[in-house]
Specification:
The protein has 197 residues and is α+β, with helices and mostly antiparallel strands. Helix content is 55%, strand content 7%. It folds into two domains: 71 residues, Glutaredoxin; 108 residues, Up-down Bundle (Glutathione S-transferase Yfyf (Class Pi), Chain A, domain 2). Strands 2-1-3-4 form a four-stranded mixed sheet, covered by helices on one side. Strand 3 and strand 4 form a beta hairpin. Helix 1 packs parallel to helix 3, helix 4 packs parallel to helix 6 and helix 5 crosses helix 7.
Length: 197
Amino acid sequence: MKLLYTKRSPYARKVRIVALEKSIDLEFMDEDLTKKSPQLFKANPIGKIPTLILDNGETLMDSRVICEYLDTLNDRAVLIPKSGKERFDILRWEAIADGLTEVALPAYMEKIRHPEDFNVAFISSQEEAVHRILVFMDQRVDELKILSLAPIAVVSNVGWVQFRLPHLIEGRKYSKLMAWLHEFSKRPSVGSTVPVL
């Protein structure tokens, strides 16, 4: 299987960690999102990463779908419970974690596109949303102690904020979340997927 991805994407990082935890071999195809390849558009008409090309040529897109698929391939580590409250607790955490990047990314892009005259009110609103999400995580971090898709999604997305918008975390009082993040980041799957320029 081939994964079309970038090393900086928190969504692709989530998929990569899942594959590593489950010992699933993927061939990584690095994409330039400023000049997307014909292969990416052929595999995914939306043109987004991550996109997974299966051995039979079929494709899966969106990190949530790809993670669900990978989790069905073996029971080495069951990262998404098959049913019940536990399943939806994990999926809720994934949605919250992915939502962190969904609100942080527009703030990051606004400053990239308009470094001299960015929309201050918009940036403030997005950064307040980031703060609310991080407080939520900090208050419930005990729910992330068992390996599942929940902590994988959290480390991927919080890691992206640390990488792109470190001022939103530095000096803030998310002490429980940061202590947990430090420990969870010792896992080889997490340490080997840290975003880089």
